[in-house]
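Example A, followed by Example B.
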Amino acid sequence: MKSPERKLPPEAIELYNEFIHGEISRRSFLEGVQRLAGGLAAATVIDALMPNYALGQQVSRTDDRIKATYETVPSPKGNGSIKGYLVRPISADTRDATVSKLPGIIVIHENRGLNPHIEDIARRLALANFMAFAPDALTSLGGYPGDDYKGGQMFNQIDKSKMSEDMVAAALWLKARPDCTGKIGATGFCYGGSTANMLAVRLEADLAAAVPFYGGPPAAADIPKIKAAVLVHQGELDTRLAATWPAYDQALTAAHVPHEGYIYPGAGHGFNCDATPERYNKAAADLAWQRTIDWFNKYVRS
């Protein structure tokens, strides 16, 4: 997939980022778009900023190389249970779910629930020969509603400490599955990136690797608890989060945690999401993805 020629001003993309993170209202977003539209119709700008999940799909839901199911995981310390999307590769010989044990990767969405893009990420990991589980933090409110704006509103209604417990429960469930090797990694995007860092702290030696994309780092006091190998991806234009990397790098070094971190030139927040073309940066996304697979192969598969 090629990135479209960028026609929107950077301010419009930043406005979208503020909107999806709940920093401005829908009305403020729409009014801001109208100011920034210039020669473009406001509706055209809004349409260009909104996700197009069909455009970003790389692996079909019906791809015969994978087997996908929805599973419900008990979460007694969280919201009672959490539902998620489990994907495994299928044996090329038998065309049935392989019975061999695989390393597991938990895939954590942004702050809008388990949307089609995150399910596609899980399928991509399955094709890289991992078992992937993508939990939906919105489970207690009925799950991802099929609309990112509504999903964001729902996300803000859920107790965040219980949400964290749901993610811990999902990760430990994946690790304990009989078809998992017992080694797991975590990756996620924005909220999911921060949560991947949180899981590295909470799970300690139970997590082999964490790969946060544009997520916030853990509290400095918690970093010495990390036993997982950490790979951090940040976009250069996502200045607030990119600025957190030097201190995180220093703390991980002091804690003797295997780690690497990259700040991708010309990339902003959400640069990996090919379902939002105006934020997507193909060069950065391709390189970050290859580094992610290599990292998981090194630390979760071995």
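Example B, a separate protein, is given below in the same form.
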Amino acid sequence: MINSLKYISTRGSAPELSFKDVIFEGLASDGGLYVPKHWPCLSNELIDSFSSMTYQEIAYEVISPYIDSTLSDEDLKAIIKKSYSCFDNTEITPLTKLDNKNYLLELYHGPTYAFKDVAMQFISQLMNFYLNENKQSINILGATSGDTGAAAIEGFKNVKSAKIFILHPYNKISEVQRKFMTTIKSENVFNIAIKGSFDDCQNIIKKIFSDNDYKKEKSLTAINSINWSRIMCQMVYYFYTLSRIKSKDKKVLFSVPTGNFGDILAGYISKKMGLKIDMLNIATNDNDILTRTLMTGRHQLQGVIETTSPSIDIQISSNFERLLYDITQDSNYVSNLMNELKRTGKYTLKENDLITMRKSFCSYSVSEEESANIIKNTFEKYKVIIDPHTAVGLSSAQKCDKEYDIMITLSTAHPAKFKDTVSNLLHNEEFITKKVSNILKLDENMTILDNDIDVVRNFITGNI
């Protein structure tokens, strides 16, 4: 690789880092998130050629501009090949056409049935490559609203140079989501159930990472979507999607069920890189902070509401900070907003920034009743079974302007991960796979802890 792209913090006070360093750093030392100094742009000719490429070949072309000389072309291609060798569909993220306008992008063909596998399989192979090369070991921390943790554990369970600690909100994710994590038998895996919400879990992780001395002493790294490599991997399937659809001279909208804003941010960056996306729809459930923000400019935290789409039961959307920085290019402004959010639980965007944001994003929230209805209607009309998160995305898309010729909803999880919700609505259990049935019979291993940073940090210290 001959690229020399550097990464900077959204808050402006952390040192610039190279690709290799930013992968292991996670949260910047000033509390911000790392972003590239500029967005690489792919030529129209290259993007057009993706139609004859495999998913893995497209991944190489999209990811390689962000890599530096620490990884050769051959090593990157080998990592990509190995990362997606465990997916159950050769297309990796296949498309399902519902009708002439609506498509589902199936992101659940990885080992844990969720879109998080697309990034986590790559990141585990990437980190393992660097760790083996330098004979180092790390300790990985993450918080999950249901799917990130399982994907991370699956990716790192055989990485001997890493221990992994995953926090999830106790009794607030589906049984299948939990068991994908807690039934893994590996000495380097630690499941921690926090008596609180996902936002509580995420705040604990952020506080631990804000202690730079502790982070360095314990060789900690993050695999939440605060880690740049997560976003980088997710950009690939946006390019893949439009390489498989005839979208020339058509208006295209992607609808993304959104909690932490990472998945939809990947679409925004793809657009910055040259992909023709007309609009990105932020699909929210009853936890509609981003919908309210885009409508009013007022970003205000409220209590988390438990829904049947728990992976987006989130109020603090970490990756929204990356969008704010990209739109404003003002690290002081972003830092002040984040400090205000921490201090008061709210902030207000400038009108010009809101106008800019609305050029790329729209947002509609979906009630529990609407989500249930779309699951039933999609099955009745198309004989396609979707999970509650996909239902939020699909229902939200239907509220968007009718001007779009093509609407692609990201189907982020297999319905079997939410079998109780879906089977109760459809009176059908044929979609529950043998893999899920077997997992439900296995014993679990997790530690239940109070929502207290000191308690969690002591647990981590005692097991490193």
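On Example B: Residues 51 and 245 are 9 Å apart (CA to CA).
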